[in-house]
Specification:
- Helix 2 links the parallel strand 1 and strand 2.
- With 136 residues, the chain is mainly alpha-helical.
- Helix 1 crosses helix 2 and helix 3 packs antiparallel against helix 4.
- The longest helix is centred in the C-terminal third of the chain and has 42 residues.
- The chain has a 3-stranded mixed sheet, with helices on one face.
- The protein has a single domain, classed as ATPase, nucleotide binding domain (Nucleotidyltransferase, domain 5), CATH 3.30.420.40.
- The chain is built from 5 helices and 3 strands.
- The chain is globular and about 55 Å long.
Length: 136
């Protein structure tokens, strides 16, 4: 399960890279940011360092920093840095990065191969939920 979430996040990083967006430091907020196993797995799957945001509710702070930067035409990086605390950088383990890259390629092949089946299963689940609601 942890790897699946990390592979999905790698998809997002790959899209950004494909669009020639410079991907700098990866910061993580929320519940996963407090879990060292999750942080290490994410670093290993991404093949790049990650850093946990230690500021509670980091997302609203980030949104506020973006808004302030837009209104004041200031650079967002110093604003965000002033408003948030970061944990130590978690480096990827070179011994597992290649294995995760191979698994990521299999993950990428799964959705196209199972798309129709997954949509059919979701429809069956919705129908079961609707029948349950009718009975209640």
């Amino acid at each position: 399960m942890v790897e699946g979430v990390c592979f999905a996040l790698r998809d997002l990083v790959e899209v950004a890279l494909d669009l020639d967006v410079e991907v700098g430091e990866i910061r993580v907020a929320g519940g996963g940011a407090r879990d060292v196993v999750w942080l290490q797995t994410l670093a290993d799957v991404l093949g790049r360092p990650v850093r946990a945001a230690l500021t509670p509710d980091a997302s609203p702070y980030g949104a506020a920093a973006l808004a302030m930067a837009a209104v004041t035409e200031r650079n967002v990086a110093p604003l965000a840095a002033a408003w948030s605390r970061q944990g130590p950088e978690v480096e990827p383990n070179p011994q597992v990065v290649d294995a995760y890259s191979d698994q990521y390629e299999a993950f990428r092949a799964l959705y196209p191969a199972t798309r129709t089946l997954m949509h059919d299963l979701a429809a069956l689940e919705r129908r079961a939920d609707d029948r349950e609601a009718e009975v209640s």
